[in-house]
């Protein structure tokens, strides 16, 4: 997991620290761009609204991740950022980030890798959301976040958050989990799950990008 202390010195000096409560909006779709952000703690949800007012979820931002990176090449934010749980957020001015990328190739590579990771994660989530049956959609989601078969893993997010990520209601998610448990595909122990059957491909929340950068 990347920490803010690993960033280039020149970039750290321009950071503004924000503390936001659950439900607060960090920025709106089409707001003028002036910064990108780093999540020190908490959970942030990125989404956009259709012309009809329908909410379309992108993905969740987790602790140790940058977000709003497309601001580096756009004049306006392409989505809305909603604080899902109380969060500590670092605001990094756009021009300072661009300058740091020019001066530090390792930092530029790390940030580019995170953009690629977020694009890949969005693609996988779109594929999962395209699965029609709720039971199959939830199973595919668990298969992507599970460790090796038979190992116990912890579900840290709330049912509401997971349901939002999968475009399901919490009630539908609960029924799908119960069905998978009845079929013997999963075992549940409070917030822990053991998945009996899953393929080798998995979507990693913490990708390579946050393990390769070291500030020089």
Uncertain segments of ≥5 residues (pLDDT<50)?
199-216
The sequence of SSEs as H and E is HEEEEEEHHHEHHEE
The whole-angstrom Rg is: 18 Å
Biggest sheet details: 6 strands, antiparallel
How many helices? The count is: 6
Average pLDDT, to the nearest integer? 85
N-to-C span: 18 Å
Could you give the count of β-strands?
9
Helix proportion = 25-40%
Beta strand %: 25-35%
Q: What would you call the structural class?
A: alpha+beta
Shape: globular
Task: Describe the fold and architecture.
- This protein is of the alpha+beta class and 216 residues long.
- The protein contains six helices and nine strands, in the order αββββββαααβααββ.
- The chain has helices at residues 9-12, 94-103, 105-129, 134-145, 159-166, 170-182; strands spanning 16-20, 25-27, 35-49, 55-61, 66-67, 80-93, 152-154, 186-189, 192-195.
- The strands form two sheets. Strands 1, 2, 3, 4, 5 and 6 form a six-stranded antiparallel β-sheet that branches. A three-stranded antiparallel β-sheet has the order 7-9-8.
- Helix 2 packs across helix 3 (105-129), helix 4 (134-145) crosses helix 6 (170-182) and helix 5 (159-166) crosses helix 6.
- The protein is globular.
């Amino acid at each position: 997991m990347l920490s803010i202390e690993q960033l280039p010195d020149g970039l750290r000096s321009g950071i503004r620290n924000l503390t936001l409560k659950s439900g607060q909006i960090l920025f709106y779709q089409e707001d003028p761009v002036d910064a990108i952000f780093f999540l020190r703690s908490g959970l942030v949800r990125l989404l956009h609204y259709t012309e009809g007012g329908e909410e379309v979820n992108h993905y969740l931002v987790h602790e140790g991740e940058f977000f709003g990176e497309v601001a580096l090449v756009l004049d306006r934010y392409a989505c809305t950022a909603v604080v899902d749980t109380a969060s500590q957020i670092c605001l990094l001015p756009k021009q300072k980030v661009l300058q740091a990328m020019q001066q530090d190739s390792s930092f530029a590579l790390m940030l580019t890798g995170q953009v690629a990771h977020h694009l890949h994660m969005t693609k996988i989530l779109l594929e999962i959301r395209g699965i029609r049956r709720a039971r199959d959609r939830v199973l595919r989601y668990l298969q992507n976040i599970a460790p090796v078969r038979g190992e116990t893993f912890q579900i840290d997010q709330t049912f509401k958050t997971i349901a939002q990520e999968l475009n399901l209601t919490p009630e539908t998610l609960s029924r799908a989990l119960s069905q998978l448990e009845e079929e013997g595909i999963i075992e549940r122990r409070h917030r822990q799950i053991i998945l009996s059957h899953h393929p080798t491909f998995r979507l990693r929340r913490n990708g390579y990008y946050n393990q390769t950068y070291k500030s020089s």
